[in-house]
Amino acid sequence: MKKPFYILSFLIVTIVILSLVQIALFNRISTRGTLLSTLQTKIEVLEHENYLLSEKLLIKSSLTSIASNAAELGFVNSKNEISLNSPLPLSLRQ
Amino acid sequence: MIWRYRFSLFFLIFFLLLVILRLFYWQVVKAGELSDLGRLQYGKYVNVMPKRGEIKASDGFSLAANKINYLVFANPKEIKDKEKNALLLSSFLELDTASISAAFEKDLFWVPLKGEVEDSVKSEIKRLNLDGIGFEQQFSRLYPESSMAASLLGFVGKDENGEQKGYYGIEGFYNRQLKGRSSFAVQIHDAFGRPVLARSSQDTSPVEGRDLILNIDRSIQFIAEKALKDGIERYKAEGGMVGIINPKTGGVLAMATFPSFDPRDYSSYSSNLFKNPFISSLYEPGSTFKSLIMSSALDAGVVEPQTKCNICSGPVSIGGYQIKTWNDKYSSNITMIDVIKNSDNTGMVFAGKSLGLEKLLKYLDSFGIGSQTGIDLEGEIYQPLKPIANWYAIDLATASFGQGISITPIELLSAFSAIANQGKRMEPHVVSKIKTSKNQTIQIEPKLLGKPISEKTAKVMTEILVNAVDKGEAKWAKPKGYRIAGKTGTAQIPIAGHYDADKTIASFIGFAPADDPKFAMLVIVDRPQTSIYGSETAAPIFFDIAQKILSYYEIPPQ
Which of A51, A58, A85 sits opposite B68 (nearest CB)? Predict the structure, then answer.
């Protein structure tokens, strides 16, 4: 008669322990879930901002844009280029 | 008692087993099907498109990037004041109120209003807090350099399923690499079937498209486009194109065509402009072709640079036709060096005849004439050479100076580059690397296509071409202090069975520096009006670009 009693007691205790563990885990996960969700939203916002800034950066740093801005500011192409491909004479170096 | 007890026990166990079997059937065997049925009750699958791969120049700058924009949609059943909403949206979406109102009247839960809406516009609409209006994030192409290299890049349109698809150029050729793999998500809807404006979960994560890193040098592309556009305006031409490649690797450094189109607004341009004429149009190359024929004759040993032409004292008659020089001036006993310098057609007939038809065709074949170059762009065409039996004496004569034979500009540039690369012909290639979504880099190695001429012939021909630039018709335009090898070309255009003397395709092909070439370039000007000659139109454009590239590469004049 004692054997079934032990088995029954063991099962009840196990069920209670597992239930408590489940409650504790759920509680923990639910809090973490909110945090995770907040972090994910933050990542999405930052990624979105990053995208928009990349777009602006690409457009501003394009050669087309730089050339047009330079022309507006009055820059002109150099007509005479000088190449210093040999050492300067000693007299000029002083 | 025992019998009844046993019967009851057996009966119960039997029923229990039946229940277990049924449960196993539903829980294990039919689990997937039931799960799908369950999902269909609260949601439906929607396709999540991956981000398209970017196309970057050799410096890593994106020529075709992605930008975020939105599809604005409405759920007409949730909109209370349809008239007011339509009026407000029409000003933001730049649509007429009537078409928005018509969309609101539809007996649907989801009606698209406008795609590719900018982020700023979306924010303004969102601030209005209109009921029944939602946004779906999308990606569309961003071209930071506007229409730069448009005919090379191609554009992104839609396929029959409404998904993004690349057309023409790199977008078309590398569409599979660029597009990535889409995934599915479940769009939740409520008990009445109305979609909840949120997405629940993604079953598979999309594989983003691969980035392409090109051999295209953004600075050289910019220089080429500007010089070409200025040149076309200056010479009142109908169009033009420039191709620049690294003869040692076959890497395409720049490719510009004019007129072109704006890939952001491709639908408002004629579809004729979508084709890249550098690879998709045939033309008669004229005198630029002489460099290939002369190289072949020299390589075959049938002529030497100092060989004198014994038929060049006047026009040459072949098969009832008279072949003249471009300026109707003739020099007896002209050498092969001067034949190229003066671009003498009769001298080229002499070289062609000395070579003979069989050898000429063999050399043209090894130069890749009459076949595709294999360039990695969508739309490359070619015209095979006629079978040997169909060639007449006049065909051999005219082909010797580049008339009566049709090729694409890329065919000519690829073949000519062999002279600049010690006789070795490389496959022209636009893409140098492919970057996967997992950040792995696939390098595309240069590919040797053949060696049509020997290194010695290439050196001799280079000197002949340097002489042609230094002493030929285009010498006035050449930048001082540089050794540049090149050849002018003025090809008449065949119209309705005859050549129009006033309409020409002027061109110039060359490479620099002659002793250690960094680039080979072909400039073509279509029907210039200020002068019909390549030496007065295409050559100045060529030298203008060459001078800037040499400065860019920090190569000083000698």
Answer: A51
